[in-house]
Amino acid sequence: GFTLPSALLMLAAGLAGGLWAGGTGAALVHGLKLVAVAVVAQAVCGMAQSLCPDTPRRLLALAALAVLIAFPTPLAQFCCLVIGAAAGLALMRPASEDGPATTAKAPIPAAALAALAAFALLLLGLPLLATASLWLQLTDIFYRGGALVFGGGHVVLPLLQGALVPGLLPADRFLAGYGLAQAMPGPLFTLAAYLGAAVGGVGGAVVATLAIFLPGLLLLYGALPLWARLRAQPWARGALLGLNAVVVGILAAALVDPITTSSLKGPGDAVIALLGFLALVSGRLNGLAVLAAIAVAGALLTG
């Protein structure tokens, strides 16, 4: 599909770090940051409508937003996810459905259990090894980002931003890469190729891209045999409802800071981002054309 070509293009953009520093490059970076504002705002609105349709879930999302504005750390994000799952388990558990007696359950394949064990071992073990080298640090950051994404690819933004900015990458280059990823036809996870290249060159891009896709593959292989069973369990559905609501709050917090705070430098920027957001939400215009218009308008305003 489009994954490999998009990843290669994002890798090339990540390697071209010096081009972002000049006058034209800085103007383009600013335009791409305004793209990020409009796109993430659209994502927050869309996810809020689908994942927070009732008062309890809206309150969970608002609580996560408030906590993460006050404490913008990866640990706070993780705690919000845990609390969201617990709240969903306690408050949003659907009623059990009556139906025919369940037949004998087939045993879980050993390979599926091994995949789930590998997923958990890497998630818990990589942070302990991350300080040993840049490659292990990148593996930890992007594996964790891929593992903790719930509710859509846009949620990876605050997870990666908290781990990379400002220690490994300036906020401007991070948000420019996110804006550029919106114009690519492949999955949003190809952003990892850009970020990995910006931090560690070609090797960093390869490590980051493999690491961000690996947890999804392990979960797919390991959880697929369990999915039918979990889907039938009211407690699992309740926990997922709570998790998804918190995800909306996490993404909204990222929209506030760092996306909006570092991207809108004046009234002109706010107008461009708002018009772009309204155009995206309306759905009447070509999405890529809207993104290109936002980027060009932002660059011209800066230049």
UniProtKB/TrEMBL annotation:
Keyword terms: Cell membrane, Membrane, Transmembrane, Transmembrane helix
TM annotation in the entry: 59-92, 112-136, 148-171, 191-224, 236-256, 271-301
GO cellular component: plasma membrane
Cleavable signal peptide: none
Location of this chain's protein in the cell: Cell membrane
One matching Pfam family: Chromate_transp
MF terms in GO: chromate transmembrane transporter activity
Membrane topology recorded in Swiss-Prot or TrEMBL: Multi-pass membrane protein
UniProt KW Transmembrane helix keyword: yes
KW Cell membrane (keyword) present: yes
NCBIfam families named among the record's database cross-references: 2A51 (TIGR00937)
Family listed: Belongs to the chromate ion transporter (CHR) (TC 2.A.51) family.
Name listed for the protein in its UniProt record: Chromate transporter
